[in-house]
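Bench log. Compound arrived from synthesis this morning; before running ITC I wanted a structural hypothesis for how magnesium ion sits in the protein. Inputs:
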Amino acid sequence: MKSAFLTIFIKEMKSIIRDPKILITMIIVPVVLTGLMYGIMGAMTTQAVKQAMKPGGEILLVDLDHGYWAENFTNYLTSHKYTVTRYKDIDSAIKNYDNALCILVIPKGFSENLTRGYTAYLQVYYRIRGISFTSMMMGYKVYGIIRQYSDMLSKQILEKTGLSPEYVSSPVNGTSNIVIGNITIKNIDPSQVTGPLLMLGLFVPLIIGLLAGFVAQLSATSIAVEKEQKMLETLLTLPLSRFSLIAAKVTAAFIVSLIGGGAYFAIMAWYFSQMSSLGATNSSVSSSIALSALVKAVGMQTPAVLVIAGFGTLFLALGIALLLAMFVDDVRSAQIISGYIIAPLMLSIFIGLFLDITSMSPIQQTAIAAIPFANLAFILNLGLTGNYTAQLVAAFSSWAYAIIVLYIASRIIGTEKIFTMKLFKRKRRTSLGFHLLTR
Amino acid sequence: MPTQVVEVNDLHKVYPGGKEALKGLSFTVKEGEIYGLIGPNGAGKTTTLRILATILEPTNGTARIYGYDVKSEPEKVRRLIAYLPEEAGAYKYLSGLEFLDFIASFYAEDEQEKRRMIQEAWKISGLGMRIKDKIKTYSKGMLRRLLIAKTLMVHPKLAILDEPTSGLDVINSTRVRRIIKKYTREYGVTVLLSSHNMLEVEYLCDRVGIIHEGRIVAEGSPAELKKMYGAENLEEVFAKIVGGEEI
Ligand SMILES: Nc1ncnc2c1ncn2[C@@H]1O[C@H](COP(=O)(O)OP(=O)(O)OP(=O)(O)O)[C@@H](O)[C@H]1O
Ligand SMILES: [Mg+2]
């Protein structure tokens, strides 16, 4: 025979999937909204960057110089897939701007300056048509082609003098090496380290906070649903342990939250991979070497501590939500009340992210690591400073709180309090008959 | 001597907030009996039934079902009873069938017994093919019939029914009463119910306890009570005991 746990669990999943109230407010809205937001932002930026990278487009040229170098530059543009339309003066060019990239003015004396060895200037006019990302990138595109042309010229000039262009363009250069914790990584692009660091120190705590929010909302809702659909009384008299009742509800809330959180995470990961591929740079260190050096720097235990603390935090949020949900009568109040948990929870994580704990004394660090939710944000920095005691406190303090809260919740669930306790005391309507009789 | 199914002794209940709902209530229900609790609004009927159904805990006094104390051995009590709350609902997003399956899963020993329960409940409910529709599409009467069916299908030793026909029209009420009567005789289910309908009580109950301000103030078979108070019907008995007829 199916166990009571499984029966309740299946019922929970069915109502989560079928009840639009739960599905819409809990899963669809947050995931779809953020997904859409990230999706649009990501697509827009990639589109804009691609547009800007792609050579070509219309340039309105006002040649006031008519010299050799003006002609040379114009040819350079056309050979790089730009369409050049000539105008006599700036005013007529502006009138015919339309979809052109920009107006390029070659001022009088351009060729003369160049031949005499002075810097020559080109004037670029471009119109701002809105705040779209694409139009912002267009400006860079024209500067890019000017830069290219300029580099080409300086190469030619230097070749005549017999000096190496590489040498002249940067007689002094730097290579970047990174010291993190007690590890030194040579010849590495800093973004290779800051990326994963950001992941561990910022996104993982935020994702856990988000998951905790999901779990709290869902489990509070699932308790309130029983009351709202007037099933609590029936449920309390069925031959099943209160423990399996709560365990099944919690499991369902966990699974659905993990799915929701997973979707959210996938969207975020996709977005950031999209973004980082745009700014990809070359580095002599492979990313796997960088990563393994990084893990050594923050300590092998740091990811584990994050996971342990993360689950503790989830259980704590869950316990608080369960506890509060017992006091309310309907789904709406349950959601409002779990909002009271989620808001300070997220705030706490955010404050944690902006708090610089590296300048604190080890004792202060250890004390602050016991603050629930916020401590998620400290774990990485504690690893970097090598305060393992504090990391241990961060890993297990949330569990301790969670166990206390869940214990209190289970004590209440076992008694009539789950039925009689009310957070918002509502006046009981005494019926007319009763008044008559007690008069 | 017949077994005592329900044994309530000097029961007191004080709600948080100080309302004393039961003030020394005592009564017993014998095996196979249909026992009716009647009394004005706020007399303490629902409170009594909730204590027996292990939802509330008595403040003082004892309540036993088949000898098991509701406060110290609630799990054992729950295996013997089926409770129909006064304002019960059901999961709106399940179909009637799924709901019956859900409830039956907690009682049935195996798949076969579960199927038997569901079949029986389907018949009792009289819902026909509507059983496959979502409960949120049911009328009040259909819902109540479904809930009566889920209570009786598990063949409990004791069925606790709080105002089983409340909110039902004449035809549905009559149907439900007939079901309760036929069914409990057939399967030897003992019934403890509360009601405001004196006709219902007279038709159904072997014995009646009149409850007033948290105490049983009169008890006996409908015939006995009528004789005791020299009344034509139970309504008169009720009025004589609890007053209020001067309006
Ligand atoms: N949860 C509660 N908290 C405080 N007082 C309550 C609670 N439930 C019931 N009471 C009070 O206890 C008394 C008995 O209530 P109960 O519901 O048992 O009456 P009843 O006989 O079932 O009435 P009715 O015929 O209206 O259903 C009433 O005065 C009621 O106001
Ligand atoms: Mg009542």
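What the model suggests: The pocket of adenosine-5'-triphosphate (ligand 1) is lined by residues A 420, 428, 430-431; B 15, 17, 19, 21, 39, 41-47, 86 (CB under 6 Å). Chain A touches chain B at residues 1-2, 4, 7, 11, 14-15, 18-19, 229-231, 233-234, 236-241, 415-416, 419-421, 430-434, 436-438 (CB under 8 Å).
ITC booked for Thursday regardless.
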